[in-house]
């Protein structure tokens, strides 16, 4: 009887493995063709001196990498990216979580608010970039009109080195907070209402339920959202390029915009690929370290 049971279990595991493999094969195929192959090709291009158009290429080995190590602008872009990562994590995550709790408490009454909050994410980043570029203009934008009430000569938020990056971060947060709000809200809806009812019966207040029951149960959701926010902040391109093109004086230049300018504006495809490869290494390393630290904290 025991042998027969083990045989059935092995057959079940084998059939499950076969089905899982069949489902994963298409995904693996597209990952290999469109992701892994592209990453390998990018590293290959980083060893070349090529303008991206001509058929002739010069192999220079690690020449582009040696130039990158001495490139002060590239390290400035890393600093700007890190500022954006920290700011977006500090602003987006708490606000999105608070909004998710508010929507969860209001339940069915907040259907309109859910749709309203989610609207910014449905808009194109390029369109938002053009829209806020006009709104923040000091001459004929809304920001200039508001500042004129408090000062004689309004200044351009996007034209000032000290304020440009914070203006861009504000727009990015406004656009992406709804995404994390819905993500957290989905996590909250997966928590059984019976837990809250049991906590109330035991005399727990709402804040006690949040910090001692629901937040610990949302730990995996918060972890995933943090990783997505971190990776997204390191890859921002379109909205920033439309609003400032990395200016003024490189104050909003990010790794992605710097890579684009080198590869497609200055036609230095080899050096642009080196920046892209460095981005891949930096983003992967930071993401893995963050994930590892979260797991260590959870184990403790």
Automatic annotation (TrEMBL):
This is Binding-protein-dependent transport systems inner membrane component. The chain crosses the membrane at residues 16-36, 82-103, 115-132, 165-186, 269-291. It comes from the Bacteria. It comes from Ruminiclostridium cellulolyticum (strain ATCC 35319 / DSM 5812 / JCM 6584 / H10). One of its GO terms (biological process) is transmembrane transport. Keywords: Cell membrane, Membrane, Transmembrane, Transmembrane helix, Transport. Belongs to the binding-protein-dependent transport system permease family. Its main location: membrane. It is found in: Cell membrane. One of its GO terms (cellular component) is plasma membrane. It is a multi-pass membrane protein. InterPro entries: ABC_transporter_permease, MetI-like, MetI-like_sf. Residues 78-292 form the ABC transmembrane type-1 domain.
């Amino acid at each position: 009887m025991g042998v027969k049971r083990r045989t059935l279990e092995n057959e079940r595991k084998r059939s499950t493995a076969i089905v899982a493999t069949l489902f994963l094969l298409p995904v693996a195929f597209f990952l290999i063709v469109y992701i892994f192959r592209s990453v390998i090709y990018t590293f290959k291009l980083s060893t070349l001196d090529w303008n991206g158009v001509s058929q002739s290429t010069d192999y220079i080995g690690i020449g582009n990498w040696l130039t990158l190590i001495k490139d002060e602008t590239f390290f400035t872009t890393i600093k700007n990216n890190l500022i954006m990562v920290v700011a977006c994590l500090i602003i987006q995550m708490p606000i999105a979580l608070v909004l998710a709790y508010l929507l969860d408490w209001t339940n069915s009454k907040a259907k309109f608010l859910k749709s309203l909050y989610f609207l910014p994410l449905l808009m194109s980043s390029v369109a938002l970039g053009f829209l806020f570029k006009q709104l923040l203009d000091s001459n004929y934008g809304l920001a200039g009109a508001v500042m004129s009430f408090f000062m004689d000569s309004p200044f351009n938020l996007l034209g000032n080195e000290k304020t440009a990056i914070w203006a861009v971060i504000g727009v990015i947060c406004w656009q992406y907070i709804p995404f994390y709000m819905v993500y957290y809200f989905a996590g909250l809806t997966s928590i059984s209402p019976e837990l809250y009812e049991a906590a109330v019966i035991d005399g727990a207040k709402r804040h006690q339920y949040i910090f001692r029951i629901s937040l610990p149960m949302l730990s995996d959701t918060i972890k995933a959202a943090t990783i997505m926010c971190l990776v997204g902040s390191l890859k921002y391109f379109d909205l920033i390029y439309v609003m400032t093109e990395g200016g003024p004086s490189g104050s909003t230049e990010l790794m992605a915009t710097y890579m684009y300018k080198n590869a497609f504006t200055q036609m230095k495809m080899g050096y642009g690929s080196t920046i892209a490869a460095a981005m891949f290494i930096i983003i992967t390393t930071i993401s893995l370290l963050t994930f590892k630290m979260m797991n260590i904290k959870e184990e403790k």
